[in-house]
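Practice problem: predict the structure.
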Amino acid sequence: MAPNSEVEFDDAKADDASVPSRKELPPEKLAEHKAIDLLSRREHTRAELETKLSKRDFSAEAIEIAIDILVARGWQSDERFAELFIEQRANRGKGPRMVRHELAKRGVSSSLAAIALENTEVDWQEIANSSIAKKFRVGDDYVKMRRFMEQRGFDASQARKAIQLLQQPEADGFSFEE
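Answer:
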């Protein structure tokens, strides 16, 4: 006896109308879904999410509600974004001034950026020392080195110390002579 290919299951006739389609969801729920989709790829600031969601024609009210829900759940945090961003930029050899500027561009408040930079365990002088050592050698033009460090976002004292260490390695108390 061959199996019947037209077997009917009792639950096969479930009412599909009970599950709302994506288009029938309220706009704040759709905005929330899109924000979750964005956050699944990388951290975003609140301002970045607002910008990206507004480009997708969500209303300001729907965006506000959606992001508030994500913040309440702990899925979106400007503090967490700032901490991770600082670490990433420090690992790329960027200085604190540049990091602060980039955080502001991404919508992190200056007070939050200052707190995050203060609480980080990044040794900015060490980052400055390694950045200058990768790019320049002893005897290179001081002005070029100084400009390079300023473009990287290091302040004048960090740049000066890094250049001095490059030019005179024994300036930090170590000597290669016995």
